[in-house]
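Researcher: I'd like a candidate sequence for this fold, 205 residues long. If you have to choose between options at a position, lean toward the conservative one.
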């Protein structure tokens, strides 16, 4: 079996999850187009059997798109952040909401931050720092930054990556590449955008 086919099969479960979330946020038309392109891999997702969440009916299309990307995780948030800087590629109604992803990423719980630091540095937070602020100075799709004071009194900024982020990004970039290929040129809004080039750009972003 060709390597690209094997990779698509491995991605199928995640793509099914992405399509289910898209349906819940009211993007059934996009899901139907993706399924038409790769009918054999995605039989478990049936748009006719799933409905949009009634609570999203009051939201604008831009809000639904932003919330969907937030729910799908860091790689999709990064995609939204990238697209928010490209008004030449996406309509203004989308940019208005996607730009909110630049500074509205939910922080990691402090216990996850603690576990990551202690696993990486093989010592407790209390042993490493005289003071460590649990509230981050800033959050991003891939991690967050905390103010801390070392034992010698130096004030430092500690950047903590989200657990497992590298493998997650690698998998989701592959998933996005598959989805881009499925949708390329199949819907009106994709005819003036090279989705595959957008995903390639994201992988370098």
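Model: Candidate sequence:
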């Amino acid at each position: 079996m060709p390597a690209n086919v094997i990779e698509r099969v491995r991605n199928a479960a995640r793509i099914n999850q992405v399509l289910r979330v898209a349906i819940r946020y009211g993007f059934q038309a996009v899901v139907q187009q993706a399924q038409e392109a790769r009918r054999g891999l995605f039989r478990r997702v049936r748009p006719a059997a799933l409905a949009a969440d009634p609570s999203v009916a009051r939201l604008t299309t831009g809000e639904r798109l932003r919330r969907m990307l937030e729910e799908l995780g860091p790689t999709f948030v990064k995609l939204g952040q990238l697209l928010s800087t490209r008004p030449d590629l996406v309509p203004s109604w989308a940019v208005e909401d996607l730009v909110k992803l630049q500074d509205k990423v939910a922080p990691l719980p402090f216990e996850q931050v603690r576990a990551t630091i202690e696993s990486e540095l093989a010592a407790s937070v209390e042993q490493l720092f005289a003071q460590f602020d649990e509230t981050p100075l800033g959050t991003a799709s891939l991690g967050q930054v905390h103010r801390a004071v070392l034992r010698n009194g130096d004030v430092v900024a500690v950047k903590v990556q989200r657990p497992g982020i590298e493998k997650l990004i690698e998998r989701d970039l592959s998933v996005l590449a598959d989805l881009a290929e499925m949708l390329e040129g199949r819907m009106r809004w994709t005819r003036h955008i090279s989705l595959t080039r957008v995903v390639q750009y994201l992988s370098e972003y």
